[in-house]
Amino acid sequence: MDGGNLDDRLFAPERPVRIRMKPIKFPTVEKGIRHSKNINNYKSKGKKLSGSPKNSDANPCQSLACKSESSNWNTFLSSPQNLKYVAPVTYFKHALLLDGWDEFSQSAIRLNIELPNPFVDAGDAKVYWVAMVQLFAGYKALVEFENFGRSTRYLAWISFCSPLPKPLGFSTRNRILLHPMLDVKEAFPNFIEKLEKILNSCNTIKDDHATMLKRKIRKSQKRFPIKSKVEALDRTYLSRVRMATVTAYIGDRMHVTYDHESIPNDQGFIFSVNSEYVHPIGWAMAVGHEIFDPIENLDPLSESYFPEYPKDIELEVGQVLEARHPYDPYVIASASIDTILKHGYFMASFKSTPKELKRPTRYCFHITSAYIYPVGFCERNGIALRKGEETSSMGLSAPLHLLPTRPTHQFSEQLKFEATDVNDPQYLGPVTVQKVAEHMLYIHFDSWPLEDPSNSAWISADSPDIYPLGYAELIGHKLQCDPVSKNQNN
Predict the structure, then answer these.
(1) Which helix (H) or strand (E) holds 380?
(2) How would residue 355 be classed by pLDDT, with cut points 50, 70 and 90?
């Protein structure tokens, strides 16, 4: 992966295209930013448009989305009954733009904006028209193009957190043609005058809409700036960390290159900036964790860096617990503590190791990790526990039941969102929640065979590796496959 910040790829949607859509019932909510600019200069100047609307035989109520050869949410969102399965942005602890999202999205409802008009064939010319924001599904917004009350409705799904929506007046300032759908033009030849009466003193987005959003996203990258040295989980040997360099960002996901990498043509690894598997230099020395090729004579890390935990809970070597398997994230397995580290960390050993590995699996957890559970967790939640051969001879249970109760979440079965594969973080695709077990979600990657468990994973409800619908489009990442509706077979 090339070095440098990849955020220049953010907010680069292409000209929209349409797909069929059924009517939707819209809620009414509060208005947003005021707009009082005169729009007398909206009169169309330039070449005359010809031809007829694209797909003139299509459903009167339509949808549009960013033009792309890759997979997307277009078809899924074209069915109104699917909207109830979209997990809201506020469900995600680490979601980009989460701070103030409710106020931001609610104030955007009923805003008038300018957008490229995909319902008119203008050749290579830029043609815009006015639309109103109706509702949100994740980061995507449904907008309705102004039709002056005609029965034919023109709807569009857009990436609202992007430079695609423009404030009223954008076309005038940039000498871009404002033109309605051709049936609207025929019914209202004086459409500019009619538009003026409707839009004077209307609400619109801020002029710096896209810049403001981009600034918020870049703020999320401050934890580990580009070119900074970190200690990252060694993805070739999970019981240790190794030195790495942050080489690039795309949204809040960072690419690291391992220092002194011994694998030919290795392209590094991708982590969330909020990942528990990446640490500042000096973490391994402070914790007592194994590190490949460490730096000597480091200044100690501040105590404030390490997670807080109940000091009265004592862990001992030989105690047993249940944990998500490091190599098989779709499995919860029995494990035993084999080393006590510092600051609440410990090493756990899994005897139920994949056959291709010739050594037992050892993995570092913090006592507050979302991926360790007291003995009986699987039985209590109806989950098949993978047991090692030595399970019957294991020691006492680790007293994890004494930990404080985890915060509640709002995820439920059948909800859909986007997630990365923890074993292959370049994969970002739509998923469906198959089961909820307390704070854990069993997710399945859409469009992959459901009967193969490797296409699923256990993930914490507060994981930084799950994202609202539209996240991939927001940051300019490829969505790996199309989402699947509930009545479709995976």
Answers:
(1) helix 377-381
(2) low
* Mean pLDDT, residues 92-119: 94
Enclosing H/E stretch for 108: helix 101-108
The CA distance from 152 to 132, in Å, is: 15
Buried b (16+ CB within 10 A) or exposed e, 344-362: bbbbbbbbbbeeeeeeebb
Please tell me the distance from the alpha carbon of residue 141 to that of residue 115, in angstroms, as a whole number.
Answer: 13
Taking CA atoms, 376 is separated from 81, 391, 400, in Å, by 38, 13, 11
* pLDDT at residue 90 greater than cutoff 50: yes
Kindly give the pairing relationship between strand 291-292 and strand 320-324: unpaired
Cβ–Cβ contacts within 10 Å for residue 394, how many?
Answer: 18
Beta bridge partners of 243: 231
C-alpha distances (whole Å) from 181 to each of 79, 138, 141 are 23, 28, 20
Question: Residue 31 and residue 380: Cα distance in Å, rounded?
Answer: 47
Helices (H), 144-302: 170-173, 182-187, 191-199, 209-219, 283-287
Backbone φ and ψ of 146, nearest 5°:
-60, 125
CA dist 435 and 448 (Å) reads 17
N-terminal to C-terminal alpha carbon distance within the chain: 32
Q: Judging by beta carbons within 10 Å of its beta carbon (0-12, 13-18, 19+), is residue 87 exposed, middle or buried?
A: buried
3-state SS, residue 365: strand
* DSSP3 helix / strand / coil % (the chain, rounded to 5): 20, 30, 55
The pLDDT tens digits of the residues spanning 49-77 come to 433 334 333 333 333 433 444 678 988 99
Q: For residues 240 and 362, give the distance between their C-alpha atoms in angstroms, rounded to a whole number.
A: 9
Sequence-distant (6+) residues with CB within 8 A of 490 are: 444, 446, 447, 448, 449, 450, 455, 484
Residue owning tokens 């993930």: 459
Amino acid at 465: D
Would you place residue 47 in the very low, low, confident or very high pLDDT band (cuts 50, 70, 90)? Answer: very low
430 Cβ neighbours under 8 A, 6+ residues apart = 73, 76, 416, 417, 418, 445, 446, 447, 469, 479, 481, 482, 483, 484
Q: Among candidates 364, 389, 390, 385, which has minimal Cα distance to 375? A: 385
Half-sphere exposure of 265 (CA within 13 A, CB side): 0
